[in-house]
Structure formats: C-alpha cells, structure tokens
Amino acid sequence: NAGVMQNPRHLVRRRGQEARLRCSPMKGHSHVYWYRQLPEEGLKFMVYLQKENIIDESGMPKERFSAEFPKEGPSILRIQQVVRGDSAAYFCASSRDRYSNQPQHFGDGTRLSIL
Amino acid sequence: RKEVEQDPGPFNVPEGATVAFNCTYSNSASQSFFWYRQDCRKEPKLLMSVYSSGNEDGRFTAQLNRASQYISLLIRDSKLSDSATYLCVVGYQTGANNLFFGTGTRLTVIP
Q: Residue A25 and residue B81: Cα distance in Å, rounded?
C-alpha cells in the first residue's frame, strides 16, 4: 500500500540547469496532479494528467515547464533553464478517478533550490 | 474572485480550547468538500471529507452550508499536535482539474 512516491526529496540546481521531478501515483490511481508551493504561500495547481494525456495544464507557466505521464513509469515534471524564482516545494498528488468526490493523496514533495 | 477563500489566521489558542475555521467558495455547483491538514514543510494530508448533513470524527466536526456557500471545521479540546495549517478544498465536476485548494488557515495551539 505504498502511497504517492516522489523523488528526489531535495534537489539543488544552478541557474540555467534542468530539473526533473518524478512522481509515482498510489497503486490503482491513474490521475496525477502537480502543485507548486512557494514559502509561506498556498498550493498552486499546475497540471493534471492521466496516462499519456495532459488533461489540464492551465496552471503551468507557458515556457520552460513541461509534464508527462507515460504509459510506463512515473510522471515527470521538467523545468528547463531554471531561475531563482523556481525555488519551491513541488507536490504531486494522485486520485483513483476524475470524480470530484475522490480526494487527492499527496506525496512528500520535492524541494527545489536554485543557486 | 478566488474559488476558495479562507482567513489565513494565525489562530493562537490555548490547549483545551475550541476553535472554528470557516471557508467560503464561489461556485454554487460545487459538489464535494474536504479539509486537509498541512504541517510545516510537509505534504497536505486529508483530514476529513465534508458531507451535506455534517459529520464528526473524534474532536473534529465539519459542517456544510450550501445556501451561504461555506464550510466550517470545529476542533474541540485542542491539542498541541493540532498545530498546523488547515486547507479547505472544494470540488465540482468539470472537464479538467476539479479540486480547488484554499490558501489555508494557520493554527497554533499554545501550552
């Protein structure tokens, strides 16, 4: 009964490098959500994916950010050419289906620090 | 207007006190409601779902008022371990992302 697994827990990158964040949903869950949380702020929705499909990316910055959830393997949130403002906690959540009465279960998060 | 609005607090209460948080939502078509708890530098964790008739789980009671579009969380006999940020979450059926998180209300229980 493994929960949502995210790795790495902490990631340090220099400006201009790429960051890759991974998320494996709970067993039996096929819906994945990514959120960003800046220090002392609330969760901000970024993107919602199902296997091989991006359902809603309305919260994703238009440039440098991308997400995927391949048929096999974890969901990946990719940030290219990172900048200081990308420093945040990135949380992944999963749910069993898309019905709104299903709560989302969160992973431990990845704390991204940009030097 | 935000989908979900909460008083950010902080609420500082002594141990044993009763404390209540409210949350308002803007979409009258909202269908599901939850309270999550988030400890400092940790992930949000589901505290309880909120049902139309109201529901209770130990020291925690959740209420829903559809007419006024708000939900509440009542914590009785506060413990030090209740110190956390409480997130109000509202969901409705759309074609895309369907859960909306409030920014949270911070609670500190003081010895």
A: 28
